[in-house]
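step=encode ok
step=design start
structure_in=
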């Protein structure tokens, strides 16, 4: 069984491969499809963006496809940046740009109002019948007053996990995947893929659901 990871973000690919390792699946990345069209993430929600990426790439490759989208909802900002987290500081913004803007907007906001949550939606699209499965993962925490840690990516250096007292960027990859929003969503995706593979074996057809 082949599975395409519909993301050009190599940090995400690394996390996805770590969670999905040992599955009876051949993982393929967009690097193997250099002529694949770019998918415009213009949805208002993470679910819409993840579903669009999964469906369009499944149609183009003809293979089972997994895509994800993540939003960051900050209490003091009324839920912003939400699904626009990757472009919070503008088109072409770097991770550092986004973190800098977030910290500037929260300057002077007390710890009690710096609550936040990450939400990741994973979508898996089957090109045979067009059916899309969705899995969600959520991680509650708070926004730090300054960046900390050299790991992770995105907003990881400013997102504190209260039970650990550390940012996601201060955790190892395996530790992060065990508790994070994306790790939780991918864990559910992993379980779904295991069931999918079992159904394929029972049916005796490579394209069966």
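sequence_out=
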């Amino acid at each position: 069984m082949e599975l395409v990871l519909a993301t050009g973000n190599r940090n995400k690919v690394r996390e996805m491969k770590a969670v999905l390792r040992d599955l009876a699946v051949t993982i393929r990345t967009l690097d193997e499809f250099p002529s694949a069209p770019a998918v415009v993430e213009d949805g208002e929600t993470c679910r819409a963006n993840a579903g669009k990426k999964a469906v369009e790439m499944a149609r183009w490759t003809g293979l089972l496809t997994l895509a994800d989208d993540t939003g960051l909802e900050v209490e003091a900002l009324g839920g912003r940046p939400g699904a626009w987290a990757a472009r919070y500081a503008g088109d072409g913004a770097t991770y550092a740009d986004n973190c800098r803007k977030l910290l500037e907007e929260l300057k002077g906001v007390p710890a009690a109002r710096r609550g936040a949550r990450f939400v990741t939606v994973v979508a898996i699209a089957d090109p045979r019948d067009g059916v899309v499965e969705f899995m969600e993962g959520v991680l509650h925490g708070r926004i730090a007053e300054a960046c900390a840690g050299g790991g992770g990516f995105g907003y990881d250096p400013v997102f504190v996990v209260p039970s650990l007292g550390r940012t996601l960027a201060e955790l190892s990859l395996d530790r992060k995947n065990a508790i994070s929003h994306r790790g939780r969503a991918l864990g559910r995706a992993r379980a779904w893929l295991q069931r999918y593979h079992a159904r394929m074996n029972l049916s005796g057809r490579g394209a069966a659901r």
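step=design ok
step=annotate ok -> Residues 59 and 109 are 46 Å apart (CA to CA).
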